[in-house]
Write a structure and sequence with these properties.
235 residues, alpha+beta, five-stranded antiparallel β-sheet, 1 helix
């Protein structure tokens, strides 16, 4: 009888420990999942709001001058309306992977994406036409050359600026092939993709020398505080 009693007590203790362990495992697995599920729902709610705004704008625009609509919006995340770039933005920090990093998913006139902070566009600096790639850290501009233009490559990069303190890099970037620095070559430049809220900005300079050609690639990633530069397609 004594042995049976001891066995019962030990079994009960083991059963209790197993139960506690199972509950702990469920909580460890379940709570992160529930958090992601909640975040996913909030993102989908924001997406629905943007879809409704898109539809209302289309209706108001079709009705002509003086048309207007009132819309009630309820969101847990901040909404930013930028009149300069004509963008309405809802931002959320989340652990739920709705869209792969640096990817923009377009639906109608609105889009959803993660880690997309690069703008790539044409502009002017003084009297110089430029192609610009910039994010929250870096502003980078090269000459806009739509057709082959005769220049030396030290004239290609127009400005590199840190945006946190608006400090302009006081330096000249030059590119040489077989020690041909200062040689005049024909160059055209292009944006691989233009627009706002991109995963990365990519400027390509097509260089044509006397007996060779190559591309200079300037890439600014979303969230990066430097521009990656490399040569490709050497012929």
């Amino acid at each position: 009888m004594r042995e049976n009693g001891q066995t019962t007590i030990v079994s009960a203790a083991l059963y209790t420990l197993v139960t506690i362990a199972v509950v702990a495992i469920v909580l460890q697995i379940g709570l992160p999942y529930l958090t992601k599920l909640k975040e996913y729902g909030e993102i989908r709610k924001g997406e629905t709001v943007m879809k409704n705004i898109d539809e209302i704008i289309a209706v108001v625009a079709s009705e002509g001058k003086g048309s207007k609509r009132k819309m009630n919006i309820s969101l847990s995340d901040p909404m930013d309306i930028n009149g300069t770039s004509d963008l309405i933005t809802i931002k959320k920090t989340t652990t739920a992977e709705i869209v792969s990093p640096r990817v923009k998913k377009t639906q109608g006139n609105y889009f959803i994406g993660t880690n997309i902070s690069v703008d790539a566009y044409s502009s002017t600096l003084g009297d110089t036409n430029v192609l610009v790639i910039e994010n929250e850290y870096i502003y980078f501009a090269v000459r806009k050359l739509d057709t082959n233009t005769s220049i030396t490559l030290d004239q290609l990069v127009v400005r590199v600026m840190r945006k946190d303190n608006n400090s302009v890099l006081n330096a000249t970037l030059d590119f040489c092939l077989d020690n041909d620095c200062g040689v005049t070559v024909n160059v055209s430049t292009e944006l691989k993709e233009s627009g706002y809220n991109l995963g990365k900005g990519h400027i390509i300079a097509n260089v044509y020398g006397a007996s060779y050609s190559y591309k200079i690639n300037f890439i600014l990633e979303s969230g990066s505080d430097f521009v990656r530069i490399y040569i490709s397609d050497l012929q």
